[in-house]
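FAQ
Q: What does a multi-component entry look like?
A: The components come first, one per line:
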Amino acid sequence: AQSVTQLDSHVSVSEGTPVLLRCNYSSSYSPSLFWYVQHPNKGLQLLLKYTSAATLVKGINGFEAEFKKSETSFHLTKPSAHMSDAAEYFCVVSGASGGYQKVTFGTGTKLQVIP
Amino acid sequence: GAVVSQHPSWVICKSGTSVKIECRSLDFQATTMFWYRQFPKQSLMLMATSNEGSKATYEQGVEKDKFLINHASLTLSTLTVTSAHPEDSSFYICSARVRGRYEQYFGPGTRLTVT
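Then the predicted structure of the entire assembly, as tokens:
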């Protein structure tokens, strides 16, 4: 079975402060993990991905995430939030299931950035 | 690179009519395309997976006769909502994946409103 849990439905930070969006996963096999961002009424944009290479992954717009197998986590961080970071963020796990790749989305975390 | 477009971006139709949504990969060949549905303030729900030249694989609970998917070429997939009803109103998002890669590239979405 495969699942992904985003622990916070809403996160609110002040501009210039660090961002932490939490994601935990479960997968029977070594999964690939992704973070996507969605701005209102827009499609999803890939922020970063982990595919069994370096465990600390750097993405676009200053975001990064660390794959921690022992904690089954893939939390998204950014040192300093910007107003333009306000959006919905989805953690996604992709793993083998029944002979094909199964993709599972988290329920999303809405990031609010306060000026 | 890896741009996916959708057309139309929004459409309003009358109950009982059919609507076709196009999904195109503009600068790469997509061996697999996915169709998702997103309800307000919710995560994406995978509707179906289509591989070029073969029939789409529908997720449980998705009516294949109502949501017709065609993946005629490596750059184009279409979703036709047949005999649309107000409950079909939603945000439909497509994504595309290259063979051998796990990440998906998303289109900007299509807002369907059935009156």
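Q: Is there any commentary attached?
A: Sometimes. For this entry: The mean pLDDT of chain A is 90.
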